[in-house]
Amino acid sequence: MKEAFISYSRRNKEFVLKLREAFKNANREVWVDWEGIPLTADWRQEIYQGIEESNNIVFVISPDSVASKECGVEVDCSLKHHKRILPILYLDVDPDAIHPEMRELPQIDFREGTNFEQAFAELLQAIDNNKEDTQEHTRLLVQAMEWEKKGRNTSLLLSGSELTSGESWLVWSSEQKPFPTPLHREYVGLSRQWVTRQAKRSIIGVSLALGVSTLLGLVAFWQYQRSQKLFVQAQQEQLIVQSTTSDALFVSQQKFPALLESLEAAKTLQQANWVSRDPQLHSTISTALLQSVYWVNQSNQLDGHTNKVRSVSFSPDGERIASASSDHTIKLWQPDGSLIKTLEGHSDRVREVSFSPDGEMIASASRDGTVNLWTKDGAKLHSINAHDDDIYDVTFSPDSQIIASASQDGTVKLWSREGERLNTLSGHNAPVISVSFSADGQQLASASADQTVKLWTIEGEELQTLTGHQGEVTSVSFSGDGQLIATASQDKTVKLWTIEGEELQTLTDHKDGIWQVTFSPDSQRLATSSKDRTIKLWNRDGTLLNTLTGHSSQVFGVDFSPDGQTLASASDDRTVRLWKLDNPSVKTLPQSGISPSFSPNEDLIAIASGMDITLWSPDGKKLNTLSGHKNWVESVSFSPDGETIASASDDQTVKLWRLDVETLHATSLQKTLNGHEGIVWTVQFSPNGEYLASGSQDQTVKLWKRNGELLQTLEGHQGMVLNVSFSPDGQTIASASTDGTVKLWRLDGETRHGASLLQTIEGHDAAVGSVSFSPDGQIIATASDDQTVKLWTTEGKLLQTLAGHRDRVYRVTFRPDGQFLATASLDGTVKIWTVDGTEVVTLKGHQAGVNHLSFSTDGKTLASTDENYTMILWNLDNLDDQLLDHLIASGCNWAGDYLQTNSNSQDLCTTDGSS
Predict the structure, then answer these.
(1) Which of 29, 197, 451, 634 is 20–30 Å from 781 (CA)?
(2) Where are the membrane-spanning stretches (predicted)?
(3) What CA–CA distance (Å, rounded) separates 913 from 890?
(4) Which DSSP state fits 332?
(5) Helix, strand, or coil (residue 823)
(6) pLDDT for res 41
């Protein structure tokens, strides 16, 4: 492997010679192409190999390099492999001339007049940043490409320490550059699957040996015990392997296979009495299964086509699914994945299939130039010789009476159901790839490789041409409410237009060309399918809702079920996949805020959102915004009666907001509490709602009456006070500080005019960021930057140290019933523990450090927020000693159709006939 591949223009060779010499003097190997070799295939392959085998790409910016076609090819190849690009500025250029993917990257200045040695030192520092991760990226890429080049030979898959190292890199690389490519993910994931299969064979061998030895009585009792011990050990190792495999598949975006793998492990653990009492193994398997159950979207996979699947369509009643393939066939399926019938009749690849809105007919379009019409049950009605060239699309009018076909010949043709040609729409100067009727059936839109969309009357009059895409327009779709037009292009964008053709906005998130865009039946969402192997789900206002991953190749077609709850996708990987769009186990609210707080009756969640407080319903709808702070809000808290919200801010104040519980709108800002001389990090109401405590950067705790009167300032900490908490009886305040201590303050029980220091709890090795009382008031939990949580008696005696997080622990909170506690960490996870210190399960899903937690009053929902301002609502209704059983039931229910129709998995969720 080389430190860097240098991409440059030959006209800048003198500078690059100097740069190469500097690398040589620093004992760094780089890849440089010196000679202007003829542009042969061998030369091109040599360049590609140089890029693949280099850890970094150093791009020398100059007017010649940014204009060079070959340099552009090198950048595109680098981006394809997710290589880290380090631009260095040799000569000034117009910023707009730089490759779009490099414009935002920091440039190292090597221009004439700058200090070359200093600039080179900066370049070496950039190369050495995350060096081990970059080297692992290159090592795995080279191995994966060799594996793919040699027909995916299993002997070239990873194993042992190489596999462990690869999996570890895959997990951590998702959060930092260079990011893994799809090939990385597939290679590591399939390596783990192969190792797992080998391990299972070993288990079977041990099992057979044990059975034979017992049956024949050929071994002594000590040999039997040894065999039994080996068998148990093998079972444990198998479960750990399955859990690791599930995790690796999940990280590789293969969430459905991850679910199946973790289900199998959980079922094995459930039935293995000799290992089922191992709490660590329980936690490991539960974490793997919970991760899959909570975040899986795919629910089924329809296998049967022998070539790429180009199109998929639901029948209007949702009882059938039709798929069109390059294997020249259409297949009819039941939604559970059972094959109804294979329709044969085309002589070339089938591009498109569509049900008529009345559900009585199916139309298919083929490269053979014909449109075939079928009954809904798959009987062929007749064939229309529609075009003399490839047909890309076919669709019915809303009344099912007209069929439109779009062709390579640049035309759209309209047909009656009987096959009579009604009209020909000509106007594009390139192939027409997609055609769509408006909701009222009075207009058509056609999308073309000429980068335009044309609007037509049903009579064939051209109304308007929509321009703006920078690539072939591959799909056009009218919304069902007749208000919007969506277009998708190979330029990686979707554009939304009014029905009159006015461009509204552009949606950008796909990494490659988009094949199809379609609206949900209620017109509120859109789905897009892409060459980048993903499906994306969008709100009609352009907000990206979700990205569905799992296909191993480009996704051509996508269609919503009539109820809008399921999405079907057709892919180059020869499969149709079904995706459930709403998972009741978890809800993600991006860009919401931090410090969530549930109202006592659970109908509201208040959250700090920048300088505002926003109110949300538990189902994730934003209801209201409270504005008034002059700086960031750090903490919010509901009063026990739910009528007041307290907020703590960087503006050094606490504000009290009166809430109209009927309308859920704040009627007034009640009071601003001034007195702190630094950021106010935390605020909390007393259990009876009469008092508030606030903790600040100024190292104090202030005790306030609810009317805003300051009762007392509690001094004693030698660092910032990050968190305060009242005991359930309201007699004690606990404060957590960066000084590594927790202080307990006793309120004056008679006059209630203040508090006195009761005790200082010491034991953490770093700042304490959170403190929480158990609901019965007998245990105090503290969370620290030392990566631990500690449980104490109220007298300050240490009961337990909970170790498991891999970074700072920001928050700890008890579930209202006192049976469990939750912890949040900078490592991006939430962990659930029993009060005796046993780790139950880890909640994974955040893409940044988790900084706040809050249980709903009934304990069934946990809200967590992270440093990206994302809030996740976790359904923990079944958090008890039967958690694994509940997760197995949920997983079996989610994948039930697939498990019933897939012969290899039919027994996974059945035990004596039940799941």
Answers:
(1) 634
(2) 202-224
(3) 17
(4) E
(5) strand
(6) 46
Q: Which residues of 362-373 are buried (b: 16+ CB within 10 A; e: fewer)?
A: bbbbbbbbbbbb
Structural domains in the chain, sorted by start? 2-129 (3.40.50.10140), 145-297 (no CATH), 299-580 (2.130.10.10), 592-762 (2.130.10.10)
CB 641, CB 623: distance < 8 Å: no
Range with lowest mean pLDDT among 12-21, 496-505, 750-759: 750-759
- CB of 518 within 8 A of CB of 526? yes
- Model confidence over 854-865: pLDDT tens digits? 999 999 999 999
Distance CA 247, CA 576 (A): 24
Cα torsion 270, 855, 650, 691: sign: negative
Alpha-carbon separation of residue 650 from 612, 680, 697 (angstroms) = 12, 6, 9
Q: How many residues does the chain have?
A: 915
d(CA 797, CA 802): 15
- How many Cβ atoms are within 10 Å of 459's Cβ, its own excluded? 10
Average pLDDT over residues 416-421: 94
CA 342 to mean position of chain CA atoms: 35
Query: Does residue 231 have a pLDDT over 80?
Result: no
CA distance to 247, 761, 790, 839, per residue, from 280 (Å): 16, 30, 19, 7
pLDDT at 195 over 50: yes
Peptide bond into 178 cis (omega under 30): yes
Dist CA 501 CA 489 (whole Å):
16
Q: For the whole model, what pTM was predicted?
A: 0.75
Q: What is the residue-averaged pLDDT of the chain?
A: 89
Residue with tokens 């008031």: 777
Percent of the chain with pLDDT over 70: 90
E strands, 479-542, in order: 484-489, 493-498, 503-508, 514-519, 525-530, 535-539
Confidence band, pLDDT 50/70/90 cuts, at residue 200? low
Largest CA distance in the chain: 96
CA dihedral of 795, 796, 798, 803, whole degrees rounded to 10: 130
Q: How far apart (Å, rounded) are the C-alpha atoms in residues 268 and 151? A: 34
Tell me the C-alpha distance between 876 and 820, whole Å: 11
Model pLDDT, residue 1: 79
State how far the Cα of 301 lies from the Cα of 309, in Å rounded to an integer. 13
Average pLDDT over residues 371-391: 95
- Asked whether 292 and 887 are in contact (CB, 8 A), the reply is no
DSSP state of 911: B
Look at residue 799 and tell me whether its pLDDT is greater than 60: yes
In the DSSP assignment, the letter for residue 549 is: -
Residue-wise pLDDT tens digits, 839-850: 999 999 998 999
Q: Name, in order, each residue with C-beta under 8 angstroms of 168's C-beta and a sequence gap of 6 or more.
A: none
CA 191 to chain centre: 22
Distance (Å, whole) CA 519 – CA 524? 7
Return d(Cα 759, Cα 753) in angstroms, integer: 19
User: Is pLDDT above 70 for 752?
Assistant: no
Instruction: Give the span between the Cα atoms of 14 and 29, in whole angstroms.
Output: 18
In contact, 635 and 685? CB cutoff 8 Å: no
Nearest-angstrom CA–CA distance, 214 and 219: 8
pLDDT value of residue 227: 47
**Least reliable range by pLDDT among 81-90, 308-317, 734-743:** 81-90
Closest CA to 877 of 479, 40, 290: 290
pLDDT band at 665 (very low <50, low <70, confident <90, very high): low
